[in-house]
Amino acid sequence: MAQGHKAGFVINGAERWSETLARLAARLSRPVFAAQGAERSTAEVTLFMGDYGYTPFGIHLDDPFTSVVHCHFGPAVKTMTLFNIEEFHRLNGKSKNCFEPSLLIPFGKTYAIRPGDIFLLPPHYYHVGHTDGFSIGIAVAISKYPEASTTQRLLQHAIADSDLSGGIAQVIERAEKDGLSFASWLRAAHRKHLAQAESRGRLRYSPRLGYRQNAISKDALWLPDPDFPITCSEHAGHLSLFARGHQIRMKKSPVIYKLLEKCRQSPASINDLHRIFEKNVFIRD
Fold first, then answer.
1. What radius of gyration do the chain's Cα atoms show?
2. Which CA distances in Å does 271 have to 186, 241, 261, 280?
3. Residue 136: which of 52, 48, 77, 51 has the closest Cα?
4. How many Å is the maximal CA-CA distance in the chain?
């Protein structure tokens, strides 16, 4: 960074780009999800880096359904100043942000976060961070949304659902032909949503890393992933398999069910699978 200039990087959804951060967030969040109910829970990683002074968003309020665990690595000390909602609006009026934090800092409660510290920011507090020196921190936002929010997300998926594509007359004709009701579609969409969320450890985003092209031996063992299990959602004519949140749509068959069961339960190589499935699985040289 140029002398006399401050700079900062804030990367939301950092679990998309880092395998280490994704696994850290999944393992940190798992006991919280178990305690608060996993079905409507999610976690997201944000990376803070720089000597940016006050947080660029000013004094602000996060999602009311979210608590944030800040893991601070330093080397500089970071401070976090909190205000309850009533006090903030008494000082700042109706505005939901204050981009001149120094005016209100004396009226808030300020905590020093030193390298190696973990700071829990509960919901319903206006807050702002500050660091004069260079520092790096990771924030894991753990959320539990009301049932209505889950329903709204499912309904938004209808826009991209192939079963609901085309003109209204086409959609109605296809639904009547397939016996598809709104209730049956919603049940199927909910099953798919739960399977996808479980497969990525209930992190908000799936990884965006490119596929590795390294050659894999036919005797190399494939191990079940303790953090990100392979999941399956059954539908009338097909299966949706999910790996780290990415969907593979396949036709139902006994071989697929057997393959899925084997991959979930124990290590297996490509040669093992070939023997188990009595040559129904083709190996390409």
1. 24
2. 40, 22, 16, 12
3. 48
4. 74
Examine the pLDDT at 39 and tell me if it is beyond 70: yes
**Amino acid at the residue 152:** Q
Q: pLDDT, tens digit, for every residue of 132-147?
A: 899 999 999 999 988 8
Confidence bin at 285 (pLDDT 50/70/90): very low
- Residues 6 or more apart whose CB falls under 8 angstroms from that of 225 comprise none
Cα 8 to Cα 193: distance, rounded to the nearest angstrom = 35
pLDDT digits (tens, 9 = 90+) for 229-250: 888 888 777 888 898 899 888 8
Angle at 69 between CA 64 and CA 75, to 5 degrees: 135
Please check whether residue 15 is in contact with residue 205, taking contact to mean a CB–CB distance below 8 angstroms: yes
Q: What is the pLDDT of residues 133-190, one digit of tens each?
A: 999 999 999 999 888 888 888 888 777 777 777 888 888 888 888 787 888 888 888 8
Phi, psi for 135 (deg, rounded to 5) = -150, 160
Omega of the bond prior to 229 within 30 degrees of 0, cis? no
